[in-house]
Amino acid sequence: MRKRIYMNMCALSCAILMVISVFVLVLFHNVNHIMMEKQMKSEVEDIAIALEHMNSKEVQRYLESISKENDSRITVVAKDGTVLYDSKEKASQMGNHKDRPEIKEAFTHGSSFDVRHSKTLNEQTYYASQCVKSGEAVRIAYVSQSLLSLVISLTPYYFVVFAFIMVLSLVVAWKMSNTIIEPINNIDIHNPETNFRYKEFNPLLRRISKYNDERKKNEKLRREFSANVSHELKTPITTISGYADLLRNGMVKAEDVEHFSEKIYKESERLINLVNDIIKLSRLDEKKVGIDVVSVKMNELAMRVEQSLQPVTDRYKVKFDLDIENIRITAVELMMEELLYNLCENAIKYNKPGGFVHLRIKRKQEKVVIEVEDNGIGIPKDCQNRIFERFYRVDKSHSKQIGGTGLGLAIVKHVVEYHEGKIDIDSDVGIGTKIMVTLPAETKVS
Ligand code: ADP
């Protein structure tokens, strides 16, 4: 970046210098032209007036003195074009001037001004002519350098000045690029918004700051999650290993073997559920599940979930019914299945024998609302905003007893966020729970 700023500044100085040089040259040339016209017109006018009041001898002396003084050429031409006087050549040896543009115009309009470039382009001649009252025309001519020869003659000086200004620009550009870059290099990446002098960088610094906060938050969550995972895994593994050790050493009575095996089986199942949920969550975290966003037929999906939950419904003696509109949503099908399954499974498990679970899916304006309602044990108000946290359980021992992992609703929350939806909860202890998920009908998946 430093090199780029430096190079750009140098290129800019170079370009500016060139443009200014051309501009100054053209300006100088034009101003010179205007001044010449003004000055020569006034001179030739003065000469014309003087000629009217002098005799021929006086005229000759007068014209010679002016020509010498001004380093100009003065010519007097008769009406028929014959040269009567010329300050540089013998008039008798000069050709007829009738057709010279400046003479022609002076006879026609009273005065004229013209510039002619020599063929070699090294010189240009300015002509100013004026008609005298006595009928002749007087012409004054100056020879000066052409623009090209002016450029050529100025080139060596120009290069010296150019080189000097370029060196100066290089030094200034180097210093300036350093001054610009230094504060950027010294940004305190951990506290980017403190003492930074370019306010143009504020949006970037705010983003860095936000990123830092999120990183810290994620790091904290990750640490907490790892600690929870280890803790949750440790309990069933310890139980399994303990019981297996007793069985291995023959310390369990024959009639207790079945009970111990059942315990080992249950703990292993819990372990498998836990590992499965952890895998699902980490895949969601890494956004690895979003493989296929498809148009999902919600009634077919709900029936599939109902079927797979049949054994749980039977075990808990809960009535499970569906009220599904014929709706399709654009979503990741596997995630949607997981969401319905977890919400319905909770509604069944945290229920009372003989209770009910209603799964409703309906369209509401541009949204799709999924409602899972039960008349189970309910959730205390102060726990309702925590149940979506990983490993949070209202009643840990109850949840463990029914094989909960504490990750089901965390997965639901993730799925809803992934599909840019929202979750609402309405629950009363002893009365029941209603969880509502609102999703856009045409889900935009990030
Ligand atoms: P778990 O695997 O323990 O069920 P979840 O994340 O699915 O974990 O749920 C978190 C906690 O929220 C549960 O432990 C339970 O206490 C409470 N909960 C979830 N759904 C319901 C419900 N329908 N009725 C009552 N309590 C519920």
Structural class: alpha+beta
Mean of all residue-level pLDDT scores: 87
Largest sheet: 5 strands, antiparallel
* Relevant CATH superfamily of the largest domain: PAS domain
Strand/helix succession: HHEEHEEEHHHEHHEEHEEHHEE
Strand share of the residues?
15-25%
List the uncertain runs: none
Name the helicity range.
Answer: 40-55%
- Give the total of beta strands: 12
Cofactors, ions and other ligands in the entry: adenosine-5'-diphosphate
**Shape summary:** rod-shaped
CATH class of the largest domain: Alpha Beta
Termini separation = 33 Å
Question: How large is the count of helical segments?
Answer: 11
Q: From the 3D coordinates, which CATH architecture of the largest domain would you assign?
A: 2-Layer Sandwich
Structural summary, described in words:
The mean pLDDT is 87. Helices cover 54% and strands 19% of the residues. With 446 residues, the protein is α+β, with helices and mostly antiparallel strands. Strands 2-1-5-4-3 form a 5-stranded antiparallel sheet. It has 3 domains: 2-150, PAS domain (Beta-Lactamase); 212-285, Helix Hairpins, CATH 1.10.287; 294-440, Histidine kinase-like ATPase, C-terminal domain (Heat Shock Protein 90), CATH 3.30.565.10. It is rod-shaped. The longest helix is centred in the first third of the chain and has 51 residues, at 2-52. The chain binds adenosine-5'-diphosphate. Residues 342, 346-347, 350, 374, 376-379, 387, 392-395, 399, 404-410, 433 line the site of adenosine-5'-diphosphate. Adenosine-5'-diphosphate (ADP) binds at residues 342, 346-347, 350, 374, 376-379, 387, 392-395, 399, 404-410, 433. It is found in: Cell membrane. GO terms for molecular function: ATP binding; phosphoprotein phosphatase activity; phosphorelay sensor kinase activity. One of its GO terms (biological process) is cellular response to phosphate starvation.
